[in-house]
Amino acid sequence: MLASTEARGAEPGPMVPAPFVLRAKRRDTADTWTLELQPREGGRLAFAPGQFTMLSAFGTGEVPISISGDPNGEGPLVHTVRAVGLATRAICDARPGDVLGVRGPFGGPWPVEDLAGSDVLIVAGGIGLAPLRPAVLALLARRERYGRLVLLYGGRSPDQLLYAEELKAWSERGLQVAVTVDSAGPEWLGHVGVVPRLVRHARFDPARTVALLCGPEVMMRFAVSALAQSGVESDRVYTSMERNMQCAIGHCGHCQLGPTLVCRDGAVYPWSALARWLAIREL
Ligand SMILES: Cc1cc2nc3c(=O)[nH]c(=O)nc-3n(C[C@H](O)[C@H](O)[C@H](O)COP(=O)(O)OP(=O)(O)OC[C@H]3O[C@@H](n4cnc5c(N)ncnc54)[C@H](O)[C@@H]3O)c2cc1C
Predict the structure, then answer these.
(1) How does pLDDT run across 59-79, given as a tens digit for each residue?
(2) Which of 40, 50, 130, 266 could anchor a disulfide with 19, C-beta 3.0 to 4.6 Å?
């Protein structure tokens, strides 16, 4: 289909996956891999922090995956993928040289461009750090524009944490980093407990803070409430929502959440725009 569309000289539509070659992969945790992809036909996929693509291993399915690479760089398309089911397992099993399908990028950005002069508090749980990594890199690339930059990150155990080496490098570049795990052995000298508990230890000025959140919904609810107790209201809290998605262009309705379609209107939203709908069970 792609070949015949190109033969007619037309642009392939947004439903047609482009072939990307897997150039390199790195194992982050037992079930999570970071993949570097390049368009088979050359060029680079430009994107904004917070956008996602529809990624497919041919014959297994297509899934929304956030872009976790550097939005400022000229490098490859980077995705960090947790193998939880048929499609994500096949994507993580791909080997360098294999071809994966990519549609997108889709969705709106974290509001990084609007945060000059603000303190920025990033709160991530588990794989939720992947969609936030491009925002961290964009903020650090222009560090002087912002006030305090804080990352609060939690995982189930120390071996579940993503980007461990990078966390150190980020803290040397001016990001306050606090990491916590749900449980750990005696070799772990850091915090133990859930991420929202770190909020009260972090140093930021609530009156000029914007928070970016991504992780399991329960973690985000508790983080929003901890932030409110610290004086950061929910209209200054942004989150990236995960919903079952198929078309990613606002046609199929699979990702509907109340009056909004996550693929078209999100996946990044101000928490205040969603709170009413998230309060309804199973919506
Ligand atoms: C906007 C957006 C961005 C996303 N970004 C990322 C990303 O950067 N990295 C990433 O790894 N995933 C990301 N996801 C989640 C990813 O799309 C799903 O994990 C994927 O669709 C699962 O498809 P599958 O066919 O592999 O599994 P399925 O066969 O659909 O599911 C297999 C089993 O895993 C369970 N499952 C499905 N999703 C998850 C999940 N997220 N966590 C735990 N269990 C799950 C299902 O309930 C089912 O029991 C994102 C989702 C959205 C909507």
Answers:
(1) 999 999 999 999 988 899 999
(2) 40
Residue 255 Cα: closest atom of ligand 1: 53
Is 265 exposed, middle or buried (CB count within 10 Å of its CB: 0-12, 13-18, 19+)? middle
Neighbouring residues of 125: CB distance < 8 A, sequence distance ≥ 6: 153, 154, 155, 195, 214, 215, 216, 219, 220
32 strand-pairing partners: 29, 82
- Which of 30, 22, 56 has the alpha carbon at shortest distance from 162? 30
Task: Give the Cα separation of 25 and 34 in Å (integer).
Answer: 6
pLDDT tens digits for range 241-259: 888 888 999 888 898 988 8
Looking at residue 67, what DSSP letter applies? Answer: B
Contact at 8 Å (CB) between 55 and 91?
yes
- Residue type present at position 173: R
Secondary structure (H, E, C), 196-255: HHHHHHCCCCHHHEEEEEECCHHHHHHHHHHHHHCCCCHHHEEEECCCCCCCCCCCCCCC
The answer, yes or no, to whether residue 159 has pLDDT greater than 70, is: yes
| Tokens coding 195 | 């991420």
Structure tokens at 65: 């995956």
Q: What is the pTM of this model?
A: 0.92
**CA–CA dist 79, 102 (Å, integer):** 11
CA distance linking residue 256 with residue 107, whole number of Å: 14
Q: 84 C-alpha vs ligand 1 centroid, how far in Å?
A: 6
**176-181 vs 61-66, strand pairing mode:** unpaired
